DNA sequence: CTTCTCAGTCAACACTTGTACACTATTGTT
DNA sequence: AACAATAGTGTACAAGTGTTGACTGAGAAG
C-alpha cells in the first residue's frame, strides 16, 4: 500500500499503475502481490479505508467546541489543510478515485464524503441558527460545505510551492467561501 | 477523438486507454494515430478545446437576461444539466482530467473553469447587489458557484437511471445550494 | 499531366502486462 | 520438535504496449 501511494505521489494516476510496478517499488516479486490483494482495485479500497480511519480520528480530536463561529471555521480549515499537506499522496489518490476510479472506488469515496456531511450535520445542529431547521435543508447545507472544502483540495495539492504562505492563501480563500455559506444559511429560513 | 470519447464512455479511464485501443476502435491501424496526434495527451488537449468551444457557444446562447434571479438560476442549471446529459462522455473525461490527468491536462481544465468564473463575474456585476462589490470578493463568489455546479456533475453522471426525474432532482438540489450562496452574497457587504 | 501532401497500410522491435504453477523461507502455535 | 500458515521466489506464457521505418493510394495544386 505504501508503495502504491508513493507511485501516485510521483505523479502517476492510480488507474494506470500496474501491479508489477507496485511490487517492484515494494522490493518484492510480482507474484507476491497476490498474497495481499486480489488486484489493484482491492488495494485501492484498502487505501481508502485507511484514509477514512485517519480522517475520523482527526475529526474526533478536533471536535467542534462551543466557540465563535468565525474562528471555529478558520481553525477547522487550517487543521484540514495541514492534514492534507501531511498526507498529500492519499489525497491525490482520493481525488483521482472520486472521478476516475472503478465504480466500487467511486462509490467508496462518495460514502466517505457522505459520512462527513452527516457528522457535520449533527455537530452544527447545536448552533442556535440550525436548531430547528428542516433536516433535508440542513443536509444540503452540510453537503455544500463538504463539497466546497473538498473541491479546492486538488488546487491546494497542485501548488508547486508548499510553503506556509500557499497554505494560508488556501485557508483564507476557503474560509471566505464558507463565510458566504454561513451567511446564506442564516438567511435561509426567512 | 470520437473513438477515445466512446472508450471513456464505456467506463474506461482516459489515462489507461492505450493509443492502440483508440486506433482499433476507430477502425484504423495503430501507426495512423501519429498522423493526427503526437500522443494521447495531445488528443486529450484537443478534446478539452472542443468541449470548451461547445460550452462557450452554449453560454453565449443562454446569456443571462434581466430576469427574476430565482427563475434565472433554475433555468441556467436546467440548461447546464441537459447539456451534460447530452455530452456525458465529454464530462466524464473532463472530470477525470481535472484530478487525474497529466499536468498539462489538469491545467487546461483549471483554465476552462477560471474562464467560466470570469464570465459569470461580468454577468452578475450588472445585478444591483453586486454593482459595487470588491472585484476580489466577487471572484470568490463566482468561483464558489462554478465549483458547486461542477462538483456535483460527477454525481449526475453516475446516476444509473437517466430519466427525467433524476435530472430534475439534480437541478433542485443544485438550485438550493446556489440559493444559499445568493443569500450569503447578499449579506456579504454588511 | 505531373507533383505533393495527406491519411492510410504492413512488418517488426523491444518491452511491459496479468497470471499460473511449483517451490522455498520464515514464523507462531501446538 | 513438528506443523501449518503466511509471505516470499523463479520460471514461463500469451497478450498487449509505444514507436521505428519504408511503402501505397487518393485527391488537390501547380
Notes on the protein architecture:
The structure is a homodimer of 190-residue chains. Chain A is mainly alpha-helical and 190 residues long. Helix content of chain A is 73%, strand content 0%. Chain A has helices spanning 2-9, 19-25, 40-61, 69-86, 88-100, 103-124, 135-151, 153-158, 164-188. The longest helix of chain A is centred in the C-terminal third of the chain and has 25 residues, at 164-188. The model of chain A has no long low-confidence stretch (mean pLDDT 94). At the A-B interface, helix 5, helix 6, helix 7, helix 8 and helix 9 of A face helix 5, helix 6, helix 7, helix 8 and helix 9 of B. Chain A binds a DNA duplex (30 and 30 nucleotides) through helix 2.
What would you say about this model in short?
Two copies of one chain form a homodimer. With 190 residues, chain A is mostly helical.
Rg of chain A is 19 Å
Helical run tally of chain A = 9
Q: What proportion strand of chain A?
A: under 5%
**How many distinct beta strands of chain A?**
0
Q: Which structural class should the secondary elements of chain A be placed in?
A: mainly alpha
> Largest chain-chain contact?
A-B, 40 and 40 residues
Low-pLDDT sequence parts of chain A: none
Report the sheet with the most strands of chain A, covering strand number, pairing sense and barrel closure.
none
**Percent of residues in helices of chain A:** over 70%
Write the element-wise H/E pattern of chain A from the N-terminal end onward: HHHHHHHHH
| Cα shape of chain A | elongated
The quaternary state of the protein chains shown equals: homodimer
End-to-end Cα distance of chain A, whole Å, is: 50 Å
Query: Could you report the average pLDDT of chain A, rounded to the nearest whole number?
Result: 94
Amino acid at each position: 500500500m505504501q508503495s502504491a501511494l508513493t507511485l501516485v505521489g510521483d505523479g502517476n494516476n492510480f488507474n494506470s499503475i500496474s501491479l508489477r510496478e507496485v511490487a517492484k517499488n515494494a522490493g518484492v516479486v510480482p507474484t507476491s502481490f497476490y498474497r495481499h490483494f486480489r488486484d489493484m482495485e482491492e488495494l485501492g479500497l484498502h487505501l481508502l479505508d485507511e484514509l477514512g480511519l485517519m480522517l475520523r480520528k482527526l475529526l474526533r480530536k478536533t471536535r467542534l467546541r462551543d466557540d465563535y463561529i468565525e474562528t471555529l471555521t478558520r481553525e477547522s480549515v487550517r487543521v484540514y489543510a495541514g492534514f492534507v499537506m501531511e498526507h498529500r499522496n492519499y489525497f491525490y489518490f482520493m481525488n483521482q478515485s472520486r472521478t476516475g476510479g472503478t465504480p466500487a472506488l467511486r462509490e467508496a469515496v462518495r460514502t466517505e464524503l457522505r459520512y462527513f456531511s452527516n457528522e457535520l450535520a449533527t455537530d452544527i445542529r447545536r448552533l442556535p441558527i440550525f436548531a430547528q431547521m428542516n433536516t433535508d435543508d440542513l443536509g444540503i447545507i452540510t453537503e455544500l460545505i463538504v463539497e466546497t472544502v473538498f473541491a479546492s483540495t486538488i488546487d491546494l495539492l497542485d501548488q508547486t510551492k508548499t510553503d506556509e504562505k500557499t497554505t494560508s492563501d488556501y485557508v483564507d480563500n476557503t474560509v471566505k467561501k464558507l463565510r458566504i455559506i454561513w451567511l446564506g444559511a442564516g438567511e435561509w429560513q426567512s
